[in-house]
Write a structure and sequence with these properties.
alpha+beta, Pnp Oxidase, Chain A
């Protein structure tokens, strides 16, 4: 058995976490100043009974302030052609500029990004401390989607599904068409 250890520091932690591939979402809400939103990869399903998701919010987030005011939020799972929307909502632009740059519709009192692969509107059910973040738990109130391929994030870069591998798995082979070792 091989073992390696390294001192735990912020740079090493960031590097390690960059090796975890995630989908890309935009989390939105509406507060006293109007709609607010941010790009989020720190999201996960939490429970099937009741239907719960958890989202990590930086304590300084303008979107967190809107979520706290309204008690609700939406999660828009971005499609592979929505990298530009992810970049807009990852920026520090004023909120009105972010929403002027993309189409959205209101569902359950919160903005949902148009063309999203899937979306979920939630009512806040709990908020927990998490260092320089909080973990907001939301109970699903409405959901829908458009289908398609997801936008992914890995190694500090946006990625897309390998269509050849996805086609092999969709065909029921249970394994990718192309050996992952050949891609190195």
């Amino acid at each position: 058995m091989t073992s390696c250890t390294a001192a735990v520091d912020e740079a090493g932690f960031r590097s390690l976490m960059a090796r975890f591939a995630t989908g890309v979402t935009v989390v939105t809400s509406t507060g006293a100043d109007g709609p607010a939103g941010m790009t989020v990869s720190s999201i996960a399903s939490l429970s099937l009974d009741p239907l719960l998701v958890m989202v990590g919010f930086d304590l300084r987030s303008r979107t967190l302030a809107a979520v706290r005011q309204s008690g609700r939020f939406a999660v828009s799972v971005l499609a592979s052609d929505q990298e530009d929307i992810s970049r807009i909502f990852a920026s520090k632009q004023p909120e009105p500029e972010k929403f002027a740059a993309c189409a959205y519709q209101e569902r359950a009192g919160v903005p949902v990004i148009a063309g999203a692969l899937a979306w979920l509107c939630c009512q806040v059910s709990a908020v927990y401390p998490g260092g320089d973040h909080v973990i907001v738990v939301g109970e699903a109130a409405e959901m829908g989607g458009n289908g398609g391929d997801p936008l992914l994030y890995y190694g500090g870069r946006y990625r897309r599904l390998d269509r050849a591998c996805a086609a092999g798995q969709a065909a029921g082979t249970g394994r990718p068409v192309r050996d992952a070792r050949a891609a190195r």
